[in-house]
Every structure is written in C-alpha cells, then in structure tokens.
User: What shape does this take?
Amino acid sequence: MNHPLFVLAVLFVSGVVQAQAQTADNAATHPAFWGSPSVDGGKCCANLLEVRANIDRLDHEIIRLMAERGKYVAEAGRFKANPAAVSAPARVEEIIVKVKGIAGESGLAESVAERTYRAMIAAFEDYEREEWQRRNAKGQ
Assistant: This one.
C-alpha cells in the first residue's frame, strides 16, 4: 500500500472516530429532549451522564448480589444426589411467582423480572452443575 495514502486514511478514520466520540460526549451531557427529572424525587437526572453513572453504580451492586447468590447456588449442590437433580422446574416456577410479586410491589415491570430471572436461573443451573462436577471430582 502507498504509505502516504495509508497515513491519510488513518488520519481520516481517526478524525471520524474522534468526531463520533465528541458527538457521544455531547449527547451524554446535553439536556433531555422532553420531560423533567423523575428519579430520586426529581433530583436525578439532568443529563444522560448522570443516568449512566447511576446505572453503573447499580450494576456493581447487582453483580455483588449475584456473586453472593452464586455462593448459595454452589452450596445447594451439596444437597443434590447428581448433576441432573440440579434442575427443579417446580422450584423455578415458585421463584418466578415470587419475583413477579416483588417486582410489582417495587415498580418494576413483572415481565422484566420474569425474563431476567429465567435467564439468571438457567445460567446458575449450569454453574451449579459445573460446581457439582468440580467438587465431586475433588471428593468434596
């Protein structure tokens, strides 16, 4: 490839990327197109940057709680005779009913709670089976 042409192409692409980043930054700090702040009694959020900061804060807490949940999921494996016993469809449905109720009380769409928990439970079932296998291979 012609070196000067390559350098020119790189400069053009980096300029486009920089312009896109600047546009994204502006979008994160400009005022909303409609409505007024409604979270935390109207104290938040004046711009998208504040929204994202709060989502990031909550993501850390959600992951911390999921990690704690994962410890109990692994512990549950000790009470299962084999990896096939991990799946408990009736228990899953009990959990779904429970979390939909909690969601309704908390102002979360029940459909979001249900879909999230079904995905999380499926992932934790896989994790519990893996932990069962790992711990039993070590004689634990």
